[in-house]
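Ticket #4471: structure export looks truncated?
Reporter: QA, pipeline team
Priority: medium

Steps to reproduce: submit the single chain below to the structure queue and open the exported record.
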Amino acid sequence: MKYPRRLLVAALATFVTVPAAQAWGPLGHSIVAALAQRHLSPAAEAEVEHLLAADHTARLADIANWPDQIQDDPAQATLWQQTRKLHYINFRGGPACDYVPPRDCRDGECIVAGLAHYVAILGDKSQGDAARLEALKFVVHFVGDEHQPLHDGYRDDLGGNKYQVQFEGEGSNLHRVWDSGMLKTRGLDWQAYAARLDAAGPVALPPPAPPLDDPYAQWAEESCRITAEPGFYPDGHKIGQAYVDAELPVAENQLRIAGRRLAEVLNLALAP
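Actual output as written to the record:
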């Protein structure tokens, strides 16, 4: 049975009151998926297992990176072209990071609209299992994407891809550092990293900001505001240990928030 969209939006709005490049890269996306899977309701877990059986897996982490991987699959070229702009949002209103759909999500081509679209398909049992499995893959991935700050930016730098930096003695860009560079400094695989973050206990969510009718827009605004914080774009384009010490906890907190919110999205969309 389809979960009514107005009820899903209302439930997510209530939930948040409780204290073209990849986003995160394979490591981060797998961590978000693993954190979410640890907190699925029994009903959602059963439905996830049912849908994932077609891919011969039961782990969300195994499908979390698929929406990025299809860009290299000629058989999925059309789907990639249809969905590639749904991985991010470019705020056009300056540092305020206020979401204005006609301006920031023209023709529904942004992550806010993309996430809403696939959540609706996932929760609609009149859709076939193949369509719902594809939707599950995009939902898992897009929730992760929304919480990588550089997928929700307002700067004209392609999400930090044009902001060149020196990191660990090599040339890189700020997007890549946030995707995976800082996370890899822990030296953990995704299973161990997810266990480490989950052991920290429930994550405190940012306070909601009105209007409360579009939680996915709020999440994008939250991430955008992180990019506007002093020091996010490093002075001198050099990233040293001081930057990692300051920003890695921010990145890890975003992973924890994404995992918690993904679990709640799936619990609501896949409720009986």
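Status: closed, not a bug. The export was complete when the record was re-opened. Leaving a note from the reviewer for reference: Residues 5-269 form a domain with the P1 Nuclease fold (CATH 1.10.575.10).
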